[in-house]
Amino acid sequence: MRYILITLAFIFTLQTAEAQLFKKEKVIYDANQGRGTTDFKFLRWGYFLGINNYDFNFDYNEDFRDIYVRRSPGFSVGLIGNMRVNSFLDLRFEPGLFISTRELTYSPEYFQGTTFNESDLIREVKSTYVHLPLLLKVSTKRINNFKPFIVGGFSTAINLSSNEDNPDDNSKGQFRTKTSPLFYELGFGIDFYLFNFKFTPSIRGLFGINDELVRDNDANSPWTSNIASMKTRGLFINFTFQ
Q1: Cα angle vertex 242, ends 130, 158, to 5°?
Q2: Residues whose CB falls within 8 Å of the CB of residue 162, separated by 6 or more in sequence, listed in order
């Protein structure tokens, strides 16, 4: 239902903005209490809604069949703090809440020589991230009511569902990950200038820097012993309002 609501809001915004965006006359972005465009404010604020899709990238110690990651779209919501550097550069802080679920499926060859059940081949990894990115936004010159940009930077997160300190491991059904992963991010988007606000759809990729796996207590665990590193990667589609 939440994805349907986001899609409907996006379509409604585009319908409302169509006449404004495709006219030759430049819109004066007037959400600054009648004082003209907020692009020239040193600090400005906004919020975003979005959809995320998280994955894992594995490196292995031995050449077994890859662990299959079944991904599910998640929901994102957050705030934006924007600091203007000049006409083309902005420094942005975008704290948000990102909810995602991934399901890992192991090949039976990981359990050779052991007794296992079908349920042992599947581990669900639920993640609730408090996502904390610091980004540099590089924009082109404004073209009528459009301004394309690229964005990149570094981020960390607090994974509220990590189970890092849980003494139970996969032998008791608990797949554990680290609480504070590190990432770098790259993306692009377009600012659309409307009469009362600025609407920005954007796409951004996220790439893990550090190994996020908390290994099982048994050094020969079939779930973690063959994993050299496990790093998050993800795709974000955000709709921003300023």
Answers
A1: 5
A2: 127, 176, 177, 178, 179, 214
Q: What is the pLDDT of residue 196?
A: 77
Q: Which residue has the tokens 């590089």?
A: 138
- The beta-strand segments (E) located in the chain are 43-60, 68-84, 89-93, 96-105, 122-139, 146-159, 182-193, 198-208, 227-241
Q: How are beta strands 122-139 and 89-93 bridged, if at all?
A: antiparallel
Contact 165, 183 (CB under 8 A): no
User: Could you tell me if 39 and 60 are in contact, meaning their C-beta atoms sit under 8 angstroms apart?
Assistant: no
Alpha carbon distance 50, 239 (integer Å) = 6
Residue whose structure tokens are 């779930």:
223
Alpha-carbon distance 71 to 124, whole Å?
A: 10
Structure tokens belonging to residue 142: 């404004």
Output the CA torsion sign for 192, 197, 199, 204: positive
Instruction: Round to the nearest angstrom and report the end-to-end CA distance of the chain.
Output: 25
Q: Tokens 């957050």 identify what position?
A: 78
- Does residue 52 or residue 39 have the better pLDDT? 52
Q: What is the pLDDT of residues 161-188, one digit of tens each?
A: 988 989 999 989 899 999 999 999 999 9
Query: Quick check: 25 and 218 in contact, CB under 8 A?
Result: no
Q: Is 173 left (phi over 0), alpha (psi -120 to 50) or beta?
A: left
Query: What is the percent of the chain with per-residue pLDDT over 70, rounded to a whole number?
Result: 84
